[in-house]
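seq as requested:
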Amino acid sequence: MKWVILSLVLINAAFLGWQLSRDQEVVVGVEAVPETTTAAMVNRLLLVSEVESGVLRQRRNLPSSKPASAPPPPLPTQIPESDKETASVSLEEVLAMPPDSDRECYTLGPLENEDDISALSAWFNAQGSQATLRDDERREVVSTWVFMGPMESREAADARVQDMQAASIDDIYVIPRGDMA
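struct tokens:
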């Protein structure tokens, strides 16, 4: 029995040494990453009421992961007269366009008032931007916890539960014992 315990201790010591040497190898290959996040690293969510009139700007520049290359050829900014009424671009054409660092995508909302939506759309059109309305349906479940005083007996509590279930209240929990019972 003494030899079994001694062999287990030696195996554990060897395993510990192997793990420590393995962790040091991994640490050498990892780049230094900031351990904390500062306020300058995080974009703050803007409310529509906080946006100054006529100004939408990028909060901060993200570092590029790609090396700088030659600038992409400029995209045509004029739409021919014949196409102004029915200007549409296929998905393949959009994907074939070179990336443009001046293009930014913003999401504003949620907006519930139709007047706010039309005013924001008109503002984007006045700025020369394209606004797309995205309609998301969100359902929020309103939960209210109601604690009722203790009943005289378990049978009285069960009768109260049956009364509540008859009134279409199904989410019920009876606290059998403790401080809240």
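The chain has four helices and no strands.
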